[in-house]
Specification:
Length: 466
Amino acid sequence: MHLIDRINPNESIHSHLESSLSITACKSHKQARHPTERFFPKRIMNRQSQATHRTGFTLLEAAVVVVIIVVILALLLPAISTSRIVSRRAQCVNNLRQLAVGMDSYHAAFHVLPAAIGGTENGPSEAGSLETNQGRLSGLVALLPFIEQQPLWGQILTPISYRSDGKVYSSMGPVPWDRHFKPWVTQVATYRCPGDASEHKEFGLTNYTFCIGDRLVDIHSAKNPRGVFAGSLQRNYSDIIDGMSHTITICEIGTDRGDRSIPGQYVVDQSVQYLFKPGRTRGMIDSNRDGTYKKTFSLSDHGRGARWADGRSGYSLVNTVLPPNSPSVAINGHELVDGLFSAGSYHRGGCHVAMADGAVTFVTNSIDYGSTGQPAKPHHVAPVTSSNTTMPNAISSNVTAGGSQTPRPAGNGISEAPLPLPVAPAAVETVYDLKKLELEPNEASKFGVWGALGTASGNEPFDQLN
Protein backbone atom coordinates (compact mmCIF):
# COMPACT_ATOMS: atom_id res chain seq x y z
CA MET A 1 0.00 0.00 0.00
CA HIS A 2 2.69 2.48 1.03
CA LEU A 3 4.89 1.64 -1.89
CA ILE A 4 2.05 2.27 -4.24
CA ASP A 5 1.31 5.59 -2.51
CA ARG A 6 4.89 6.88 -3.08
CA ILE A 7 4.82 6.03 -6.76
CA ASN A 8 4.63 9.06 -8.91
CA PRO A 9 1.80 8.61 -11.31
CA ASN A 10 4.06 9.94 -14.06
CA GLU A 11 6.62 7.25 -13.45
CA SER A 12 6.39 3.62 -14.12
CA ILE A 13 6.47 0.88 -11.54
CA HIS A 14 9.50 -0.60 -13.22
CA SER A 15 11.66 2.46 -12.63
CA HIS A 16 10.78 2.59 -8.94
CA LEU A 17 11.81 -1.03 -8.52
CA GLU A 18 15.19 -0.34 -10.09
CA SER A 19 15.79 2.55 -7.66
CA SER A 20 14.95 0.39 -4.69
CA LEU A 21 17.38 -2.31 -5.78
CA SER A 22 20.27 0.15 -6.29
CA ILE A 23 19.80 1.58 -2.78
CA THR A 24 19.90 -1.90 -1.30
CA ALA A 25 23.15 -2.71 -3.18
CA CYS A 26 24.87 0.43 -1.92
CA LYS A 27 24.09 -0.45 1.70
CA SER A 28 25.45 -3.95 1.28
CA HIS A 29 28.63 -2.52 -0.30
CA LYS A 30 29.23 -0.20 2.66
CA GLN A 31 28.84 -3.10 5.05
CA ALA A 32 31.45 -5.21 3.11
CA ARG A 33 34.42 -2.94 3.94
CA HIS A 34 38.08 -4.02 3.86
CA PRO A 35 39.00 -6.12 6.94
CA THR A 36 41.78 -3.72 8.01
CA GLU A 37 39.32 -0.92 8.47
CA ARG A 38 38.03 -2.68 11.55
CA PHE A 39 41.36 -2.13 13.34
CA PHE A 40 42.87 1.02 11.73
CA PRO A 41 41.00 4.26 11.48
CA LYS A 42 40.61 5.85 8.10
CA ARG A 43 42.98 8.71 9.07
CA ILE A 44 45.85 6.31 9.81
CA MET A 45 45.30 4.51 6.54
CA ASN A 46 45.54 7.78 4.68
CA ARG A 47 48.85 8.59 6.39
CA GLN A 48 50.28 5.22 5.41
CA SER A 49 49.27 5.69 1.82
CA GLN A 50 50.92 9.11 1.80
CA ALA A 51 54.12 7.70 3.36
CA THR A 52 54.43 5.19 0.56
CA HIS A 53 54.70 8.04 -1.92
CA ARG A 54 57.25 10.13 0.15
CA THR A 55 60.98 10.10 -0.91
CA GLY A 56 64.27 11.18 0.91
CA PHE A 57 64.98 11.87 4.63
CA THR A 58 63.89 14.55 6.97
CA LEU A 59 66.50 16.85 8.51
CA LEU A 60 66.27 15.02 11.80
CA GLU A 61 66.83 11.64 10.18
CA ALA A 62 69.80 12.95 8.21
CA ALA A 63 71.32 14.45 11.35
CA VAL A 64 71.01 11.13 13.18
CA VAL A 65 72.73 9.29 10.32
CA VAL A 66 75.59 11.81 10.28
CA VAL A 67 76.09 11.50 14.04
CA ILE A 68 76.24 7.70 13.77
CA ILE A 69 78.83 7.89 10.99
CA VAL A 70 80.97 10.33 12.98
CA VAL A 71 80.90 8.10 16.04
CA ILE A 72 81.93 5.07 13.98
CA LEU A 73 84.81 6.97 12.38
CA ALA A 74 85.93 8.24 15.76
CA LEU A 75 86.14 4.66 16.97
CA LEU A 76 87.91 3.37 13.88
CA LEU A 77 90.52 6.12 13.27
CA PRO A 78 92.72 5.27 16.30
CA ALA A 79 92.74 1.63 15.24
CA ILE A 80 93.66 2.59 11.66
CA SER A 81 96.44 4.88 12.90
CA THR A 82 97.79 2.19 15.20
CA SER A 83 97.80 -0.37 12.41
CA ARG A 84 99.77 2.01 10.17
CA ILE A 85 102.36 2.57 12.90
CA VAL A 86 102.68 -1.18 13.45
CA SER A 87 103.03 -1.73 9.71
CA ARG A 88 105.82 0.84 9.43
CA ARG A 89 107.72 -0.67 12.33
CA ALA A 90 107.34 -4.12 10.81
CA GLN A 91 108.77 -2.87 7.50
CA CYS A 92 111.66 -1.22 9.36
CA VAL A 93 112.42 -4.50 11.10
CA ASN A 94 112.31 -6.27 7.75
CA ASN A 95 114.84 -3.80 6.30
CA LEU A 96 117.25 -4.39 9.16
CA ARG A 97 116.89 -8.15 8.83
CA GLN A 98 117.66 -7.89 5.14
CA LEU A 99 120.80 -5.89 5.95
CA ALA A 100 121.81 -8.44 8.59
CA VAL A 101 121.33 -11.27 6.08
CA GLY A 102 123.31 -9.31 3.51
CA MET A 103 126.13 -8.82 5.99
CA ASP A 104 126.14 -12.51 6.77
CA SER A 105 126.32 -13.28 3.04
CA TYR A 106 129.23 -10.85 2.69
CA HIS A 107 131.03 -12.64 5.53
CA ALA A 108 130.36 -16.01 3.91
CA ALA A 109 131.87 -14.76 0.64
CA PHE A 110 134.94 -12.94 1.98
CA HIS A 111 135.32 -14.33 5.53
CA VAL A 112 135.31 -10.76 6.89
CA LEU A 113 132.70 -8.07 7.47
CA PRO A 114 132.64 -4.89 5.36
CA ALA A 115 134.56 -1.86 6.63
CA ALA A 116 132.50 0.99 8.07
CA ILE A 117 134.42 3.45 5.91
CA GLY A 118 136.79 2.77 3.02
CA GLY A 119 137.21 2.89 -0.73
CA THR A 120 139.87 3.89 -3.24
CA GLU A 121 142.64 6.17 -2.08
CA ASN A 122 145.14 6.01 -4.96
CA GLY A 123 145.05 9.00 -7.26
CA PRO A 124 144.76 12.78 -7.02
CA SER A 125 143.62 13.98 -3.60
CA GLU A 126 141.75 17.10 -4.70
CA ALA A 127 138.06 17.25 -3.90
CA GLY A 128 136.89 17.17 -7.52
CA SER A 129 138.99 14.23 -8.64
CA LEU A 130 137.18 11.53 -10.60
CA GLU A 131 139.87 8.91 -9.96
CA THR A 132 139.40 8.36 -6.23
CA ASN A 133 136.76 8.58 -3.54
CA GLN A 134 139.42 9.33 -0.91
CA GLY A 135 138.42 6.29 1.13
CA ARG A 136 135.23 7.98 2.29
CA LEU A 137 132.67 5.40 1.18
CA SER A 138 130.30 3.80 3.67
CA GLY A 139 130.17 0.05 4.13
CA LEU A 140 126.62 0.23 2.78
CA VAL A 141 128.15 0.49 -0.69
CA ALA A 142 129.85 -2.88 -0.28
CA LEU A 143 126.56 -4.48 0.85
CA LEU A 144 124.68 -3.56 -2.33
CA PRO A 145 125.20 -6.84 -4.25
CA PHE A 146 124.11 -8.81 -1.17
CA ILE A 147 120.75 -7.00 -0.74
CA GLU A 148 119.54 -7.52 -4.33
CA GLN A 149 121.03 -4.31 -5.70
CA GLN A 150 123.37 -5.84 -8.27
CA PRO A 151 122.50 -3.34 -11.07
CA LEU A 152 123.39 -0.37 -8.88
CA TRP A 153 126.56 -2.09 -7.74
CA GLY A 154 127.47 -2.67 -11.38
CA GLN A 155 127.14 1.04 -12.11
CA ILE A 156 129.51 1.87 -9.25
CA LEU A 157 132.02 -0.79 -10.20
CA THR A 158 132.15 0.05 -13.91
CA PRO A 159 134.01 3.16 -15.11
CA ILE A 160 131.31 5.41 -16.55
CA SER A 161 130.61 9.03 -17.43
CA TYR A 162 127.63 11.02 -16.18
CA ARG A 163 129.17 14.40 -16.89
CA SER A 164 128.56 16.86 -19.71
CA ASP A 165 132.31 17.23 -20.25
CA GLY A 166 132.61 13.52 -21.07
CA LYS A 167 135.04 12.72 -18.25
CA VAL A 168 134.81 9.17 -16.94
CA TYR A 169 134.51 8.20 -13.29
CA SER A 170 136.88 5.47 -12.16
CA SER A 171 135.77 2.17 -10.71
CA MET A 172 134.12 2.54 -7.26
CA GLY A 173 133.11 6.06 -8.12
CA PRO A 174 134.14 9.52 -6.88
CA VAL A 175 133.78 11.09 -3.43
CA PRO A 176 130.28 10.52 -2.01
CA TRP A 177 129.40 14.21 -2.15
CA ASP A 178 129.72 14.35 -5.96
CA ARG A 179 126.13 14.99 -7.05
CA HIS A 180 126.89 14.26 -10.71
CA PHE A 181 127.48 10.59 -9.96
CA LYS A 182 124.03 9.04 -10.33
CA PRO A 183 124.46 6.04 -7.98
CA TRP A 184 125.11 8.42 -5.06
CA VAL A 185 121.84 10.27 -5.65
CA THR A 186 119.85 7.06 -6.14
CA GLN A 187 117.59 6.16 -3.24
CA VAL A 188 117.91 2.54 -2.12
CA ALA A 189 114.56 1.48 -0.64
CA THR A 190 116.13 -0.98 1.80
CA TYR A 191 118.09 1.86 3.42
CA ARG A 192 114.96 3.84 4.26
CA CYS A 193 112.63 3.43 7.23
CA PRO A 194 108.98 4.00 6.22
CA GLY A 195 108.40 5.77 9.52
CA ASP A 196 110.77 8.58 8.47
CA ALA A 197 108.93 11.09 6.27
CA SER A 198 112.03 13.10 5.33
CA GLU A 199 112.21 13.86 1.62
CA HIS A 200 114.94 12.66 -0.71
CA LYS A 201 116.76 15.84 -1.79
CA GLU A 202 120.23 15.89 -3.36
CA PHE A 203 121.49 12.45 -2.33
CA GLY A 204 120.07 9.10 -1.38
CA LEU A 205 119.29 8.88 2.35
CA THR A 206 119.83 6.12 4.90
CA ASN A 207 118.22 5.27 8.21
CA TYR A 208 120.66 2.47 9.05
CA THR A 209 124.34 2.68 9.87
CA PHE A 210 127.23 0.94 11.58
CA CYS A 211 127.93 0.71 15.31
CA ILE A 212 131.47 1.46 16.54
CA GLY A 213 130.78 0.65 20.18
CA ASP A 214 131.48 3.16 22.95
CA ARG A 215 134.43 4.73 21.21
CA LEU A 216 134.82 8.52 21.64
CA VAL A 217 138.20 9.48 20.16
CA ASP A 218 139.80 8.56 16.82
CA ILE A 219 136.49 7.05 15.83
CA HIS A 220 137.53 6.78 12.17
CA SER A 221 140.67 4.86 13.06
CA ALA A 222 141.10 1.12 12.68
CA LYS A 223 143.26 0.90 15.81
CA ASN A 224 141.94 -0.34 19.16
CA PRO A 225 138.44 -1.26 17.96
CA ARG A 226 135.65 -1.27 20.51
CA GLY A 227 132.70 -2.33 18.40
CA VAL A 228 132.26 -4.71 15.52
CA PHE A 229 133.23 -1.86 13.17
CA ALA A 230 136.19 0.50 13.40
CA GLY A 231 137.13 2.72 10.48
CA SER A 232 138.60 0.71 7.61
CA LEU A 233 139.15 -2.38 9.77
CA GLN A 234 137.47 -5.54 8.49
CA ARG A 235 136.72 -7.93 11.32
CA ASN A 236 135.13 -11.36 11.31
CA TYR A 237 132.69 -13.15 13.57
CA SER A 238 135.47 -14.78 15.56
CA ASP A 239 136.40 -11.34 16.92
CA ILE A 240 133.02 -11.05 18.64
CA ILE A 241 133.76 -12.77 21.94
CA ASP A 242 130.92 -11.11 23.87
CA GLY A 243 128.38 -13.25 22.03
CA MET A 244 126.67 -12.73 18.70
CA SER A 245 123.28 -12.17 20.32
CA HIS A 246 124.70 -9.54 22.70
CA THR A 247 126.57 -7.39 20.19
CA ILE A 248 125.08 -4.66 17.98
CA THR A 249 126.16 -4.37 14.35
CA ILE A 250 123.70 -1.91 12.78
CA CYS A 251 121.71 0.89 14.42
CA GLU A 252 118.79 2.95 13.24
CA ILE A 253 119.11 6.73 12.81
CA GLY A 254 116.80 9.52 11.65
CA THR A 255 117.25 11.96 8.79
CA ASP A 256 116.71 15.70 8.70
CA ARG A 257 113.07 16.83 8.46
CA GLY A 258 113.89 20.53 8.61
CA ASP A 259 112.42 21.04 12.09
CA ARG A 260 115.61 20.63 14.19
CA SER A 261 114.49 17.17 15.34
CA ILE A 262 117.12 15.38 17.41
CA PRO A 263 117.00 11.97 15.64
CA GLY A 264 117.80 13.50 12.25
CA GLN A 265 120.30 16.24 13.09
CA TYR A 266 123.51 16.87 15.04
CA VAL A 267 125.20 19.91 16.55
CA VAL A 268 128.50 20.91 14.93
CA ASP A 269 131.78 22.47 16.01
CA GLN A 270 131.41 21.97 19.77
CA SER A 271 133.87 21.85 22.65
CA VAL A 272 135.63 18.66 23.67
CA GLN A 273 134.06 18.95 27.11
CA TYR A 274 131.07 16.94 25.84
CA LEU A 275 133.25 13.88 25.36
CA PHE A 276 134.13 13.95 29.05
CA LYS A 277 130.66 14.86 30.22
CA PRO A 278 128.14 13.51 27.67
CA GLY A 279 125.29 14.28 30.05
CA ARG A 280 125.75 17.97 29.33
CA THR A 281 124.21 17.46 25.92
CA ARG A 282 120.81 17.49 27.63
CA GLY A 283 121.24 21.25 27.78
CA MET A 284 120.96 21.32 23.99
CA ILE A 285 117.32 20.14 24.06
CA ASP A 286 114.63 22.79 23.61
CA SER A 287 112.42 22.68 26.69
CA ASN A 288 109.54 24.27 24.79
CA ARG A 289 109.66 21.76 21.92
CA ASP A 290 110.62 18.36 23.24
CA GLY A 291 112.70 16.30 20.85
CA THR A 292 114.31 19.28 19.11
CA TYR A 293 117.52 21.27 19.49
CA LYS A 294 117.65 24.80 20.85
CA LYS A 295 118.00 27.48 18.19
CA THR A 296 121.19 28.74 19.83
CA PHE A 297 123.14 25.68 18.59
CA SER A 298 124.42 25.38 15.02
CA LEU A 299 123.36 22.23 13.21
CA SER A 300 124.78 20.33 10.27
CA ASP A 301 123.92 21.53 6.79
CA HIS A 302 122.64 18.09 5.82
CA GLY A 303 121.86 16.09 8.96
CA ARG A 304 122.22 12.45 9.91
CA GLY A 305 122.00 9.85 7.15
CA ALA A 306 121.98 12.55 4.44
CA ARG A 307 124.20 10.45 2.13
CA TRP A 308 123.93 6.69 2.26
CA ALA A 309 127.27 6.34 0.44
CA ASP A 310 129.19 8.63 2.82
CA GLY A 311 131.01 6.83 5.64
CA ARG A 312 131.94 9.84 7.74
CA SER A 313 130.74 9.97 11.33
CA GLY A 314 128.16 12.73 10.94
CA TYR A 315 126.27 10.68 8.38
CA SER A 316 127.02 7.04 9.01
CA LEU A 317 128.34 6.09 12.45
CA VAL A 318 126.82 5.43 15.87
CA ASN A 319 128.61 5.12 19.20
CA THR A 320 126.76 3.55 22.12
CA VAL A 321 127.46 6.25 24.71
CA LEU A 322 124.18 8.15 25.02
CA PRO A 323 120.86 6.27 24.76
CA PRO A 324 118.72 6.37 21.61
CA ASN A 325 117.26 9.70 20.53
CA SER A 326 119.83 11.67 22.53
CA PRO A 327 121.60 14.71 21.02
CA SER A 328 124.48 14.08 18.63
CA VAL A 329 127.52 16.37 18.77
CA ALA A 330 130.47 16.85 16.39
CA ILE A 331 133.62 18.06 18.18
CA ASN A 332 135.63 20.88 16.59
CA GLY A 333 134.27 20.28 13.12
CA HIS A 334 131.39 19.01 11.02
CA GLU A 335 131.79 15.57 9.44
CA LEU A 336 135.03 13.59 9.70
CA VAL A 337 135.52 14.39 13.39
CA ASP A 338 135.14 12.76 16.77
CA GLY A 339 131.98 13.23 18.76
CA LEU A 340 128.84 11.76 20.23
CA PHE A 341 126.72 10.25 17.48
CA SER A 342 123.56 8.71 18.90
CA ALA A 343 121.20 6.16 17.48
CA GLY A 344 117.60 7.27 17.02
CA SER A 345 114.43 7.06 15.00
CA TYR A 346 110.98 8.55 14.56
CA HIS A 347 109.39 5.49 16.15
CA ARG A 348 107.91 6.29 19.50
CA GLY A 349 110.12 5.54 22.48
CA GLY A 350 113.34 4.18 20.94
CA CYS A 351 114.91 2.66 17.84
CA HIS A 352 115.70 -0.69 16.23
CA VAL A 353 119.11 -2.35 16.21
CA ALA A 354 120.41 -5.47 14.48
CA MET A 355 122.55 -7.89 16.44
CA ALA A 356 125.46 -9.90 15.07
CA ASP A 357 123.35 -13.07 14.99
CA GLY A 358 120.82 -11.38 12.68
CA ALA A 359 118.17 -10.72 15.32
CA VAL A 360 116.47 -7.31 15.36
CA THR A 361 115.36 -5.76 18.63
CA PHE A 362 113.83 -2.48 19.77
CA VAL A 363 115.92 -0.50 22.26
CA THR A 364 114.07 2.05 24.38
CA ASN A 365 115.25 5.54 25.23
CA SER A 366 115.39 4.55 28.89
CA ILE A 367 118.08 1.87 28.51
CA ASP A 368 120.83 2.00 31.12
CA TYR A 369 123.89 3.94 29.90
CA GLY A 370 125.94 4.23 33.07
CA SER A 371 125.82 6.55 36.04
CA THR A 372 126.17 10.03 34.54
CA GLY A 373 127.99 9.52 31.27
CA GLN A 374 131.18 11.05 32.68
CA PRO A 375 133.97 8.46 32.29
CA ALA A 376 136.83 10.81 33.19
CA LYS A 377 137.52 14.13 34.87
CA PRO A 378 139.57 16.97 33.43
CA HIS A 379 142.69 18.28 35.10
CA HIS A 380 143.95 21.85 35.36
CA VAL A 381 147.20 23.14 33.99
CA ALA A 382 148.95 26.47 33.83
CA PRO A 383 147.46 29.01 31.41
CA VAL A 384 148.77 29.23 27.87
CA THR A 385 150.85 32.38 27.40
CA SER A 386 151.49 34.38 24.27
CA SER A 387 154.81 32.60 23.74
CA ASN A 388 153.07 29.24 23.59
CA THR A 389 150.23 29.64 21.15
CA THR A 390 150.11 26.05 19.86
CA MET A 391 147.13 24.22 21.32
CA PRO A 392 147.67 20.52 21.96
CA ASN A 393 145.28 18.19 20.22
CA ALA A 394 144.64 14.50 19.82
CA ILE A 395 141.47 14.73 17.75
CA SER A 396 141.54 13.32 14.23
CA SER A 397 141.88 15.76 11.33
CA ASN A 398 138.86 17.76 10.24
CA VAL A 399 137.47 17.37 6.74
CA THR A 400 135.23 19.94 5.12
CA ALA A 401 132.19 19.11 3.02
CA GLY A 402 134.34 19.25 -0.06
CA GLY A 403 136.72 16.69 1.36
CA SER A 404 139.77 18.91 1.98
CA GLN A 405 141.72 18.08 5.11
CA THR A 406 142.94 20.53 7.71
CA PRO A 407 145.59 18.85 9.88
CA ARG A 408 145.95 19.77 13.54
CA PRO A 409 149.15 19.85 15.62
CA ALA A 410 149.76 16.70 17.61
CA GLY A 411 149.86 16.65 21.38
CA ASN A 412 148.43 15.11 24.54
CA GLY A 413 145.30 17.15 25.01
CA ILE A 414 143.02 19.76 23.52
CA SER A 415 141.70 23.05 24.79
CA GLU A 416 137.95 23.59 24.97
CA ALA A 417 138.11 26.64 22.68
CA PRO A 418 140.65 29.01 21.10
CA LEU A 419 142.31 30.87 23.93
CA PRO A 420 142.73 34.66 24.04
CA LEU A 421 145.92 36.15 25.38
CA PRO A 422 145.85 35.91 29.19
CA VAL A 423 145.43 39.11 31.11
CA ALA A 424 146.64 37.82 34.44
CA PRO A 425 149.10 34.93 34.95
CA ALA A 426 146.93 33.60 37.75
CA ALA A 427 144.20 32.49 35.32
CA VAL A 428 143.71 28.74 34.97
CA GLU A 429 142.48 27.10 31.77
CA THR A 430 140.83 23.68 31.66
CA VAL A 431 142.58 21.23 29.35
CA TYR A 432 141.28 17.71 28.78
CA ASP A 433 143.58 14.75 28.40
CA LEU A 434 142.05 12.67 25.62
CA LYS A 435 144.13 9.64 26.57
CA LYS A 436 141.79 9.13 29.49
CA LEU A 437 138.99 8.44 27.01
CA GLU A 438 140.85 5.67 25.24
CA LEU A 439 139.77 2.16 26.16
CA GLU A 440 141.42 -1.12 25.33
CA PRO A 441 139.50 -3.50 23.02
CA ASN A 442 138.92 -6.02 25.85
CA GLU A 443 138.05 -3.46 28.52
CA ALA A 444 134.51 -3.40 29.92
CA SER A 445 132.34 -0.48 28.87
CA LYS A 446 131.70 2.39 31.29
CA PHE A 447 128.38 3.25 29.71
CA GLY A 448 126.10 0.65 31.22
CA VAL A 449 124.08 -1.89 29.27
CA TRP A 450 123.95 0.33 26.19
CA GLY A 451 127.72 0.61 26.04
CA ALA A 452 128.15 -3.12 26.68
CA LEU A 453 125.84 -4.00 23.77
CA GLY A 454 128.03 -1.94 21.49
CA THR A 455 131.34 -3.57 22.39
CA ALA A 456 132.50 -6.74 20.65
CA SER A 457 135.02 -7.96 23.23
CA GLY A 458 134.38 -6.02 26.43
CA ASN A 459 133.91 -9.16 28.54
CA GLU A 460 130.78 -7.79 30.20
CA PRO A 461 128.76 -10.38 32.16
CA PHE A 462 125.78 -11.74 30.25
CA ASP A 463 123.39 -11.19 33.17
CA GLN A 464 124.06 -7.46 32.84
CA LEU A 465 122.77 -7.51 29.27
CA ASN A 466 119.62 -9.55 29.80
